[in-house]
Amino acid sequence: MRLTFILRMSAERALANIKDSVFINGNWVKPVKTFDVLSGTSGKVFATCPNATVDDVDAAVKAAATAFKTWSKTPATERSDWLKYVYR
After folding, report:
1. What's the domain count of the chain?
2. What is the DSSP letter of 22?
3. What pLDDT is recorded for position 49?
4. How far apart are CA 25 and CA 66, in angstroms?
5. What ranges in the chain are assigned the alpha helix state H?
6. Would you give per-residue pLDDT tens digits along the chain (88 residues)?
7. To pair with 44 at 20 to 30 A between CA atoms, which of 2, 4, 13, 35?
8. How far apart are CA 57 and CA 60, in angstroms?
9. Which residues face 37 on adjacent strands?
10. What domain range includes position 58?
11. Triad 72, 77, 83: Cα angle to 5°
12. d(Cα 67, Cα 28) in Å, to the nearest integer?
């Protein structure tokens, strides 16, 4: 199950990847382009984010729809436990 893969990754790795990649179907995917996020007060760049393509979004939506079939059958208490675990 993909969620197991996510939980095994270290927090540091996840945080490092989220800066320049998008998470699709259990994998970190580096998009071709990124974009800068500017501070509203200084106008300076304070972050760079991945710029997902339409194909990236389509792949992510398809993966989410597939995962939902299993996830939606999981008891609410277990889903809650997973979400709390991932949040930490």
Report:
1. 1
2. E
3. 85
4. 9
5. 2-8, 11-18, 54-71, 76-87
6. 455 555 555 545 555 556 678 889 988 888 889 888 888 888 888 888 889 999 999 999 999 999 999 889 999 999 888 888 776 7
7. 13
8. 5
9. 47
10. 2-87
11. 75
12. 17
Q: In the chain, which ranges are E strands?
A: 22-24, 27-29, 33-38, 45-51
Model confidence over 1-23: pLDDT tens digits? 455 555 555 545 555 556 678 88
The DSSP secondary-structure symbol of 31 reads: -
> Could you tell me if 38 and 44 are in contact, meaning their C-beta atoms sit under 8 angstroms apart?
yes
51-76: buried (b, 16+ CB within 10 Å) or exposed (e) per residue? ebeeebeebbeebeeeeeeeeeeeee
Environment class of 17 (CB within 10 Å of its CB; exposed 0-12, middle 13-18, buried 19+): middle
